[in-house]
Amino acid sequence: MKYYSTNGKAPLATLEEAVVNGLAPDRGLYMPERIKKLPADFFEDIDRMSFQDIACTVAQAYFGEDIESGELERIVRSTLAFDCPVVPVCDGISSLELFHGPTLAFKDVGARFMARLLQHFIKSGSGGTVNVLVATSGDTGSAVANGFLGVDGIHVYVLYPKGKVSKIQESQFTTLGQNITALEVDGSFDDCQALVKSAFMDSQLNSHMRLTSANSINVARFLPQSFYYFNAYARMKERGAAGRLVVCVPSGNFGNLTAGLFAREMGLPVERFIAANNANDVFCQYLSTGIYSPRPSIRTVANAMDVGDPSNFARILDLYGNSHDKIAASISGAAYDDSRILRTISECHAATGYVLDPHGACAYQALADGLRDGEAGVFLETAHPAKFKETVESAVGASIDMPQRLQEFASRQKQTVEMTSSFNDFKEYLMGE
User: Fold this and answer.
1) What is the mean pLDDT of each run of 10 residues along the chain (433 residues)?
2) Which residues does 230 contact at the CB level (< 8 Å), separation at least 6?
3) What are the two backbone dihedrals, phi and then psi, of residue 397, each rounded to the nearest 5 degrees?
4) CB count, 10 Å around CB of 198?
5) In angstroms, what CA-CA distances link 142 with 137, 204, 249, 367?
6) Rounded (5°) CA angle 94-402-404
């Protein structure tokens, strides 16, 4: 399988080149040349398959031309050492719980898969140290840092906006040491993302060190996230509730939604998607107007979605041939401010006993507002609510349990390097490494 750039001005790349380079030379995002349709009998039998077996089949369609089947199966099964269950919340609405991995966030799936795939390429001939740059607005940093922790031949630099991630999230990637370096940037997530993208385009820096990204701009990060969409369908089909399935995705950089759209292109029977935004509603505005107008991000209680210029919008445009009509026919949008998010957490807990995190709350509310007669809704609960303990406890009016894994992170000592949002300062730091 070859990979092309969304900007259309770069040579085709192999899977290894796309993964190791992260971003195409023309600053575009890599896309696979084709998306394979899965056979009808796969969907007929899917409700009798385990999550891992489903993921192995999907991975074979993506990566089977480039990785020996036994090695690919080993990577997938090692990645998915935890479940992503579908839990009924109320009539017609279920939660796809993606917080059962090591860092209690959905990004554990993509980050663990990418770490194992990159290590496979290093061992099979790439050689040398690969330096992973990752910008985070919350959970990406912890998932990537923990996914790559202790992996030989890889050093990770996590860039995060100072004072704009929760203390628990921060502790998950600033306390690890070893091959993980946390850079505390005086700016926004968009500033962090701009530093990463600029680093890839700097020839002097790239001749000094081998760089790649573990954000959802990397195909090895976002493609495996489609695994759990297939699992959600399987578990809903088990319950006889997959007839008219609507999937609602809390959306920030839009890698997660893009993975779901790829799953649909592979044949997954999803009737439509809803993109749930917080006050950073650039995509919702695009759906309404046909005009994409990125703007500086706004800080909210759903901080992982605080993105004003989502990178993966380029992939969505490419997937649908730059047609606003086709995009709007497949995806609807909803956006909620902080007061509505907090009220949703409170109301859902009071009515059902289910505890939402702020990101899942956006998606739950979008389903509550937008489901049509006869449809069944699944929303993605992307992080454990305890990662936002103060916010969630204030909303529900009660204490919530802190998982042991989070307690362990919170007790460790923070280790960071302070950084301005200037690329020159960032480059100077990396050149000294």
Assistant:
1) 96 94 90 96 96 98 96 96 97 96 91 90 73 84 86 91 87 91 93 91 91 84 96 96 94 93 97 96 95 92 90 96 96 97 98 97 97 95 93 94 85 92 96 88
2) 46, 54, 55, 58, 263, 268
3) 70, 30
4) 15
5) 10, 29, 20, 28
6) 110
CA end-to-end distance (rounded Å), the chain: 35
- Within 13 Å of residue 349, how many CA atoms lie on the same side as its CB? 22
Classified as helix, coil or strand, 323 is: coil
- Residues 247 and 367 sit within 8 Å (Cβ to Cβ): no
Predicted confidence at residue 22, as pLDDT, reads 85
Distances (CA, A) of 381 to 93, 94, 142, 235: 12, 10, 17, 15
| Token representation of residue 144 | 């990537």
CB atoms near residue 272 (< 10 Å): 17
CA distance 359 to 301: 8
Q: Say if residues 1 and 34 touch (Cβ distance below 8 Å).
A: yes
Tokens 């790649």 found at = 212
Strand partners, 378: 94, 247
Cα–Cα distance between 57 and 226 in angstroms, integer?
12
| d(C-alpha 69, C-alpha 76), whole Å | 10
CA 433 to chain centre: 28
Provide the edge-to-edge strand list for the sheet that holds 93-97: 86-90, 93-97, 376-381, 245-250, 272-277, 331-335
C-alpha distances in Å from residue 139, one per residue of 53, 187, 249, 414: 26, 17, 15, 17
Structure token pair of residue 155: 């050093």
Closest CA to 51 of 1, 116, 122, 100: 100
- In Å, what is the CA distance from 243 to each residue of 233, 268, 271, 375, 377? 10, 12, 9, 8, 11
Task: Quickly tell me which residue has 């719980």 as its tokens.
Answer: 97
Which of 14, 432, 424 is CA-nearest to residue 202?
Answer: 424
